[in-house]
Amino acid sequence: MMANLYLGLVHYPIYNKNMQVIATAVTNFDIHDISRTARTYDVKKYFLIHPLEVQAEIIKRITDYWQHGYGKTYNPDRSNALERVTYTSSIESAIAAVTEIEGKAPVTITTDARTYPNTVTYGFVRKLLHSGDKPLLLLFGTGFGMEQETMNSFDYVLEPVYGPCDYNHLCVRSAAAIILDRLAGEAWWEK
Fold first, then answer.
1. For the chain, what is the radius of gyration of the CA atoms?
2. Which residues make Cβ contacts (< 8 Å) with residue 145, sequence separation at least 6?
3. How confident is the model at residue 191 (pLDDT cuts 50, 70, 90)?
4. What is the mean pLDDT of the chain?
5. How many structural domains comprise the chain?
């Protein structure tokens, strides 16, 4: 039995390139592309996490169009993927939502281009997924990464994504796809 997997895209508290804490903007690409990846890998819910009401309105307009408007009939596949998108104002509210759905708090795992004392491997997280004991909430940061105090609050940090060289600055949409594929595990496509 596999544990349920949830995703979150965190827009605050995020560092900018000057290491100041900011809220980043929600992008149309992040909504569409990550929701389609989440649907492909059977993620239960994809939380867009942002504290500003103006950004919540943007998310609502985009998702409503594809879930209830003309977009639903125009492209049912996109509508199906966007059904998993949920807006929430904070990481804590995403954790509370998963806890309410599942009846138990999720294991919180985030991503970063750096390593931390609680950094774990893909194999470790695959074992958590396959144990089925607790749901997992996998969080991706935007900008130049999540604020340090927030990073310290997670159960685990997933090891960075590296290719064949030492460059490591993927866009979040690519990172989400690569990470979900790595977590899918042993040749799932051959089953």
1. 16
2. 14, 15, 112, 113, 114, 151
3. very low
4. 93
5. 1
